[in-house]
Amino acid sequence: MPPKSVKKVVLAYSGGLDTSVILRWLQVTYGCEVVTFTADLGQGEELEPARRKAEMFGVKEIFIEDLRETFVRDYVFPMFRANALYEGQYLLGTAIARPLIAARQIEIAEAVGADAVAHGATGKGNDQVRFELAYYALKPDVTVIAPWREWDLTSRTKLLEFAEKHQIPIQKDKRGEAPFSVDANLLHSSSEGKILEDPAVEPDEIVFQRTVRPEDAPDRPTVITIDFERGDPVAVNGERLSPASLLAKLNDYGRENGIGRLDLVENRFVGMKSRGVYETPGGTILHVAHRAIESITLDREAAHLKDSLMPRYAELIYYGFWFSPERRMLQALIDESQKSVSGRVRLKLYKGNVTVIGRESPNSLYVPQIVTFEDDAGAYNQADAQGFIRLNALRLRLAAARGRRGGTP
After folding, report:
1. Taking residues 190-216, what's their average pLDDT?
2. Is the whole model's pTM more than 0.90, yes or no?
3. 25: Cβ contacts below 8 Å, ≥ 6 apart
């Protein structure tokens, strides 16, 4: 039985089998009105079928929104200013999408007078945490319905039986066991489960949807430039583009050159290890380029401090704490560091690799006349290094002297 009475619920709805079953299950189990919300985050799928399917279920309020620009500008780019990598590798493509979907769900719920929100995340994964932490951060008293934690549809067979009983259309490729689960948006695609569950087995090529095999990429390198302003990319090859258009352009370059594949065993927030196969073509290029422009524009200690905070920042996003005060605090520090991060990076793309081959900035801290091995005309007094070294060696010399006297080195 439902834990409490619900009159109207806003469902994060993709139109696929799982959320279609959830839609009908909500109507049957809670006897409530369901409002569907489908976000276009650049997943590359036609979304009108989701509208038609929702209408078939008698849904009267259907929201389908193009949020690609918002997604890249307000979520992806702030994250990339931090060079965020979870566990040193994962560019957080799924994790960064969830707070935007959740935030819009809450806005719709308040606009239509709904008293609950619902999602289709399972009870084993990270997404349930990400959705619900965002819901509660934005609307503390909201009622959250998580069907996978409530219903008795504990297998694919039961899910299909429910669908057939309630005349829910089932695509032919959904009958039986699906080969793997896919989540996609403009930043990446993520594949998990089924044929990918053995981490000792190489992923089949059918898993990869956004990149050609590096071996099949062109035999000649592709050279591109990316322009940055205050830490954000603004142009590719000199052409200024909107955030979503720029990422899409980099995705094209990444796909053609086999860039951005990652086979990762990661630690989920709920405690288990899982194997995911990710493709982040444009994001991989952007990550390398951003670090390159920072290398000549950030002060050493500012850069090192920022790098030391990055794992914590990435972990907050992965765990679902986008709307937490600590993430906002870190974002303010990161954004402050980006004021001088402007300029151009030149990159060579070749068979899965991204190589920096040039970087320039009007704010560059790289001074050739100081660093040169040739005559620097007095720009740097090498004799100054002697005192610098002796001062830094003082504690080491004292410890060594103590050791010679019989003490602990």
Report:
1. 94
2. yes
3. 147, 151, 153, 162
